Structures are given as structure tokens and as C-alpha cells.
UniProtKB/TrEMBL annotation, chains A, B:
Domain HTH gntR-type: 1-69
PROSITE patterns: HTH_GNTR
Source organism: Massilia cellulosiltytica
One Pfam family recorded for the sequence: GntR
Descriptive protein name: Aminotransferase class I/II-fold pyridoxal phosphate-dependent enzyme
Family: In the C-terminal section; belongs to the class-I pyridoxal-phosphate-dependent aminotransferase family.
GO molecular function, one term: DNA-binding transcription factor activity
PANTHER family from the UniProt entry: HTH-TYPE TRANSCRIPTIONAL REGULATORY PROTEIN GABR, TRANSCRIPTIONAL REGULATORY PROTEIN
Presence of keyword Transcription regulation: yes
The entry's keywords: Aminotransferase, DNA-binding, Pyridoxal phosphate, Transcription, Transcription regulation, Transferase
Length: 490, 490
């Protein structure tokens, strides 16, 4: 842990313990610097971090004050455990595509977006690295750096895992067209059509689409907004059904934002290993933590090679470059072969370009800035939800990523909310997108990965008004007219 | 047709008709220029073209002479029609991967390679275009230029089809990670696991691998080295079986090099339409013609939207950039959705880079040079086969692409030839790679896409000696020890 992170942790502990109370003024930067023998910039960094986490706030010409942000946040959602057991066919494509299509235009406020703002990334520096990569590329690398991919880049990726505490070798890495391809290949490598696969409830719709495309059935296991998948329910599902695999997100899950504690990750890996069930781990948000250090992936606890870990640079460095990877453990050969037969390779100059970027340093500096920005935007989004959404609305408190999971009071139907918002050029990702059976109809996922401005604040206010109107004049269950909804069994 | 192409056609006709005989000296460049009223460079270009086609040859300080190359070529292979009817499961992956892996090192003479030499492509110019594309890229294009892909690039691709005589609109185009992804997506869009799909015999092993991965069965219909798939046998298969799709290459088929005449393409499209069977058309070699004009794709005859046409820049412009596309006809929506759920998009800077290259011109000039080079290398390869391979060896005479299909006399076993060649650092693609049931054991595919030199000539001589040795001391059928061979039913 860096010096400023230690200092921030210490102050955070004082706030949580009540030693520092809401409204208290913090010592000045110079005072702390002198008393602790640390540099002024270290204190500033610690204060920025605490501000990002919503614990303190600067007042102009007056210093920093404790806001103890937590007391000003909406209450957290409760765990949903209404998932029935057993495996079910998946048919979400129609609903998911119709919603994504409706939110794709630039004129739409991007609350439904799956991406953070592309302006948060070092695109000019990446472009220069790409130019150098393409210019200096060995022509023969177009032939022999096909899957598993550039040896240099695989070494760079493995080194980052090593530094974070997961033992990964360059030969474990298979470079892919983004994490999405990695996930699809891993799923195909360990399943046959008709198999059942455990997913979280709610889960990333991309997982459901992957299951649907491969003719797989879903077993939904409830996940909690704080700690992720419920291990007791998972154990039950493993005993009752015969899943071929389990697909989940351990760090800052999409859509919940949940973070599995290390102990849970270890227990998860052991539990699955006891049943011989492979784990497909989607870790694309792992680098976007607001806390002091990168949370470990479940892969770090994998003794059996049963964890197929997938990630990418798309959400943390290079959107649009489509560079991801899989660490498929004992399934490496199958995944590499599937990759070769489906898309052969990732563009050689893109691999060279990312490799050049990583070699020149600056990635970690960019990440610190990005995490800081996202944490600030989360504070703004949470506050806006509290301000504008109907009383009784709950929201998750993710410690990383850029999604807020919002649970409206029962009676709000987010599928019709989405349609009404769409007419006002506001994108919304309604809960049923994240469920194989159309659950979470009073929930939405909000993207706070975009620069906070009046337009976004206004959109939140509009959503709040629309939800309130639904509560004021509750309607009968709507006729089944939403695209794909009938397929959801709603 | 350009002026020099017209002139070359005229002279070629004179040679074929016997008006000009082997050994005859052609009129001097200046004479023709004067008598025909065309520029000296036009005559030179015509003579180069004829030289590339093996019809004439320059002698130093003496002018051009008719060599009527055809009489010096190996005899053509006969049509294979020993395919049994009915659909069969496909298990070629083990064999194909073991052979491809063994030939992947740079030290191996690349006769088994699927790629032409990367040195034949304008990589420095492409790198500059990529640099400009990345530098000027609108950051938001990383979000909204996902599948179907960049509107500019789709317009540029559609325009080339229009110029070549196929009516294609930008909205018909779905940008993909190379043609391989396009083909896999199209196949998945029109089939369900267990379905039967018509392929050529022999066929591109990538088609067989795609079938295997999706759990599809293959119906093999014989294809002829000159004209492509046998339409009579295709009609029988359509009537007897219930195929879900037909996958083939209309132009310069891999591995045969066959070119379907326009009339056959039209008949093919009509026949399939009569049965309501979609055609997946792999046209990655269409631009590599040696003749006067680009052969039409079957897509040009498609009235029903039943042709799913796939191509890319990988073989004709930008190896390693992994930029391809599908024109999926009436299946556009399904293909675009599958693409979105599997790999989301093609790297935005790569799309921008290719678009920049195409906008600046020079692609057609590059293609003319490339075709000329490949045609010359084919002449060299055919001559070497005639010189070094055992008497009775036959070879195809492709009018485009960079593959020669060679049929040794019965008694040569190319699977053991491949293993023996491998020990000598020579890559060989044996016939059984191209068949769902391990046929064509006395055939190989030779790649002539690399600069002709003593090393390649020496490799051909070695292969010839190895084949001759097999014929001299015929061995009993080898024990089944080749990887995957048992699966081939051999």
C-alpha cells in the first residue's frame, strides 16, 4: 500500500469509528504534512482519495470537512432470493437488443450504456503507440503471432497479474477480441448444447446471450449487491443440478457492483473444485477499484486449473481497441483452438500498439486518475438518486466500476419506465435485461461512467418523476407488447 | 477491360488458336505500339501479363517468344467423384491443428502455409493510414461504430462491389474480424446443431472445423479443379438430403484453385433458391485473378437474399489486420446480432485505418502488382512440379490465388510424406486435411504465395524425391498413429 493510501485508510477508520464526526474540519494539509513527516502531495493525494470515496469534502478557502458520505446515500438493496431452482432455457436476445438499439444514438443520455465515457481514456497516447507498433511491426508477425498472440504482450499481461498477487505465466494467456470473445470461447470450451450453466441473478446480459446462442440452460443463483453470489445457494444448486460450468463476476459485478471478499472467492473456488465444475470468471472491472488495492481475482485461488479467467483493456485503458484475453487454466488448448477456428487472431498492429503503450509506462498513472474520476462520479450519482428518486428507492454502493444498481419501490415497472424515458432521449437499462426470467422489474442499472453535468442530473430528475408518476397512478400489469417479453415468461 | 488487357487477350487468342506457335518471336514493343496506335507502356503491360500467364517469355536482347506455357505444365487432375452421399459427422480438428502447428515456425519452408508472403503487401503505407486513423478517430466511434461497423468503410466496400458488377449497399455490410469470423457467424445464423451442410470435396479445412465446432454434419459434393462444384451432384444431394446450408468458394477455391464460370454461379444460386437453401460464399481470393477482370461472386446473381457472401482484406491487402465482412442478405440482422454477442465489434482504429487507406487510392495499383507476382510464381511452381515430381503427377492450373492442387500417382501417401517433409523443415498440406473423411491421400496443396527462390525449388525437389521413394518401395498401409487420423475413418 502506498503512503497516501495508508494515510487515507487511517483517516477513514477515524471517521467510521466516530472519532471524527460529520462537519468536523480536518487538520490542514500543512499541519498533517509536518506532524506525520510526509510530503504535502502525499496528504493531498490522501484527501483526494477520501473525497472520491465521499467521506470528506473541500470547502473553498476553508479546508476539508467530514461529510461521512455514507449517511447521505440511499439505503442499500436487499438480497433477492426469489429465484426458483432448476435450469431454464434462455431467450433474452430480443429484449436486450431492442433496448440497446434504442439507446445507441449519441443524442441519448447514456445511463443505459455499458461503456464509460471514451473521453476518460488516453486515446492520443494510444494512437501514438499504435502508430509505432504498426510501423515497427515485423511483417512475419502477421503470420506467426496469431493465437495465442504476441509473446511480448502475453508477458506484459502476466506480469501485471504477478504484481497483483496472482501467479500467471505468459503461456497461460490467450489474446482475444475483447473479453467478450474470451468469455464466449471459454463457455464453448467447457459446455455442450443443452448443458446447464450457473449464472448470477441478476447477471450481465452478455452472459445470458452467450448461453442462448450456444443452446445452454441457465441456473440462476441469487447475488448480493455487497458480497456477490450467495455461496449457500450456490452449494444447493451444485448439489441439486448438474451444471457444466459457472459464469460470474467476482469484482464489481455488472449490474450490481458487488465485490466478493477474498474469503468468499477462496470458498467459491474450493466449492466448484469439489464438484469438478469449471468457473468462468469475468473480471473486466477489476482494475476499477476505489479502495487501496486491486482486489484479487478468483483465479488467484485456483489450484486445479478449473478457473477460466477473462479480462480486457476495453474498460480500463483502450476502448474500441478490442483487446482482451483468457487465462483458461487446464482448458487452454481447447480455448486457443476455438479462437483459431473462429477468428484466427487479434489484429497484429493492435497487439503491437498495446504492447508499446505498456512498455512505455503510464498505465498505472492513468488508472489512478480514472478510478478517482469514477469514484467522484459515483458520489454524484448516488446523491442525485437520493435527491430525485421516490422515497424508498434503494441503491448499491459499489467500491469500483461505474454501475449503480437501483431498486425502486414495488409498483414501479422499469420496462415501461424505459420506454417512457426513451421518448425523452434518456437511456435506461431495466432489471429484466439481467435475468433469464424477466425478474427485477422494479430495478434499473445506472451508468455513472460519464462526466457529471446538468444533462445527466436532469435525466435522473426526469427518471425520478416518471417513477413517481407510476407510483401515484399504479397501472394494471401492462399488456405483453414489449419485444421479447413474452419469451421471458412475464 | 483496360487497353493492355484487351491487347493481351488478343495475343493470347492468337496463341491458343495456333496462329502464333511455340518458339515464334513476337513483334517488338515498338512495332506493336506503332501499328496499333497504343503507347509503349501499354504494350509492355500486355507482355508482362502474358509472361505472368506463362504464354510468352523474354529473352535478353532478343525480344519476346511464345512459350505456350500450357504445353509445359503438368497434366490436370481428374474430377474426383468417389464421395459417398449422405451426411457425416466431422472430426478434423486434431489432424488439421497438428499439421498447422508443425508448419508454423519461420524455419519451415512455407509450402503448407495458408497465407501469401506478408512481404507482398503495402505494410508501411497501411501503418501510416492506421496511424492517421487512430489519431483522427472520434472517441465516440469506439462506442457507436460497433457492429455493423464504420459507415464510411461499409460504403467503401459496397462501392467496390458495385464497380465489379454486384449490387451491394453499405447497409448490407457487416464488418467482422476477418472473413473467418464472417463465415462462422453466417454458418451459425442459418443452422442448428445436428443440421447437415453441403461442402465441396475437397474443401477448405476451416469450413470443416466450423462445422465440427457447431456440431454440424457434412455432405460432401465433388468439386472439379477447373469449374468448381459439380452441379449435377449438388442437385442430387439437395434432393436426397435436407441440408440447412451450402458453403463453398466460387472463385479460386482453396485448395483446388477452381473458378466457377458465371453460368455455373447463376445456376448454383437458382438451384439453391429452388430448394430454399442458403449459400455461404467464401470469396477471399476473388481479387487475386490473373485474367482481365474480377470474376463475379455468386452474390451478384442473388435475387432472394439467400447468399451470405464473406470476404476480407487479409489475402489481398492487409494481412494481420483481421478486417473482413459479411453480406448476409436476408440474414443480416441475425449475423449482426451474433457478431455483437460474440465479439461486439472490430477494433475502431483498424476500421479507421483501412478506411483511410482506401480513401487515398493505390489499392488497385497494389492489386495489379500482387496479381502479376502471384501469376509469375505459379508458373515457377508448376514448372518445378513438372521437373521434380514423379511422372504421372497432376496439378491444377488456377487462374488466380496462390494454391496449386497436386495429385501424385496412386501409391503416394501424403500423410506420411508430410511427416517426412516435416523432419526436413518443409511444410506440406496433405489432401486429407481438406476432406471430412480423410480422402485425397495422394494429394497435396502447395502454396506459391512466396518469393520464388532456391530454397523453395529445393523443397519441391525434396518432396519429389520423397514421393518417388514411396513409389519405389510401396509400404503397407501405415499403422494408425497420425493424430486424429482414426477419427477420419482411415
Amino acid at each position: 500500500m502506498k503512503r497516501y493510501e495508508l494515510l487515507a485508510e487511517e483517516i477513514a477508520t477515524s471517521i467510521r469509528s466516530g472519532m471524527l464526526d460529520v462537519g468536523d474540519r480536518l487538520p490542514s494539509v500543512r499541519q498533517i504534512s509536518t506532524s506525520r513527516g510526509v510530503s504535502v502531495s502525499t496528504v493531498f493525494e490522501a484527501y483526494y482519495l477520501l473525497e472520491a470515496r465521499g467521506l470528506i469534502r473541500a470547502r473553498e478557502r476553508s479546508g476539508y470537512y467530514v461529510t461521512a458520505g455514507n449517511t447521505r446515500l440511499p439505503p442499500e438493496p436487499v438480497i433477492h432470493s426469489n429465484c426458483s431452482t432448476g435450469a431454464h432455457p434462455v431467450r433474452v436476445n430480443d429484449l436486450v437488443f431492442s433496448i440497446l438499439e434504442s439507446a445507441r444514438s449519441r443524442d441519448v443520455v447514456p445511463l443505459a450504456s455499458a461503456f464509460p465515457s471514451p473521453l476518460l481514456f488516453p486515446l492520443p497516447r494510444l494512437a501514438r503507440s499504435l502508430a509505432r507498433g504498426a510501423e515497427t511491426m515485423d511483417p512475419w508477425s502477421t503470420v506467426d503471432a496469431i493465437t495465442p498472440g504476441s509473446a511480448t504482450l502475453r508477458r506484459q499481461i502476466a506480469t501485471r497479474y504477478l504484481a497483483d498477487g496472482a501467479l500467471v505465466q505468459p503461456d497461460d494467456v490467450v489474446i482475444t477480441n475483447g473479453a467478450l470473445e474470451a468469455l464466449n470461447l471459454c463457455l464453448q470450451a467447457v459446455t455442450q448444447p443443452g448443458d446447464a450453466v450457473i449464472v448470477e441473478s441478476p447477471t450481465f446480459y452478455g452472459a445470458l446471450q452467450a448461453l442462448e446462442n450456444l443452446g445452454l440452460r441457465a441456473i440462476e443463483v441469487p447475488s448480493c449487491p455487497r458480497d456477490g453470489i450467495c455461496l449457500d445457494r450456490l452449494a444447493q444448486a451444485l448439489a441439486a443440478d448438474k451444471p457444466a460450468a459457472c459464469w460470474l463476476m467476482t469484482n464489481f459485478q455488472n449490474p450490481l457492483g458487488s465485490l466478493m471478499p477474498d474469503a468468499n472467492k477462496r470458498a467459491l473456488v474450493d466449492l466448484l473444485a469439489a464438484h469438478g465444475v469449471p468457473l468462468i470468471e469475468d473480471d473486466v472491472y477489476g482494475e476499477l477499484y476505489y479502495g487501496p488495492r486491486r482486489p484479487l481475482p478468483a483465479k488467484a485461488f485456483d489450484q486445479e486449473g478449473l478457473v477460466l479467467h477473462c479480462s480486457s483493456f476495453s474498460k480500463c485503458l483502450a476502448p474500441g481497441y478490442r483487446l482482451g484475453w483468457a487465462l483458461p487454466g487446464r482448458f487452454r488448448e481447447q480455448v486457443a483452438r476455438l479462437k483459431l477456428t473462429r477468428t484466427l487472431a487479434v489484429a497484429a498492429p493492435v497487439q503491437e500498439g498495446l504492447s508499446d503503450y505498456l512498455a512505455r509506462g503510464g498505465y498505472d498513472r492513468h488508472l489512478r486518475q480514472l478510478r478517482h474520476t469514477l469514484a467522484l462520479q459515483q458520489t454524484a450519482m448516488s446523491a442525485a438518486v437520493l435527491r430525485h428518486f421516490p422515497a424508498g428507492t434503494r441503491a448499491s454502493r459499489p467500491e469500483g466500476g461505474y454501475f449503480l444498481w437501483v431498486e425502486f419501490p414495488a409498483g414501479v415497472d422499469t420496462l415501461s419506465l424505459q420506454r417512457e424515458a426513451c421518448l425523452r432521449n434518456i437511456g435506461v437499462a431495466p432489471g429484466p435485461m439481467f435475468s433469464a426470467r424477466g425478474e427485477f422489474r422494479n430495478c434499473i442499472r445506472l451508468n455513472f461512467g460519464h462526466h457529471w453535468d446538468a444533462k445527466i442530473e436532469g435525466a435522473i430528475a426526469t427518471l425520478g418523476a416518471l417513477a413517481a408518476a407510476q407510483l401515484d397512478s399504479p397501472r394494471p400489469a401492462p399488456a405483453i407488447e414489449e419485444p421479447g417479453l413474452s419469451a421471458l415468461g412475464a
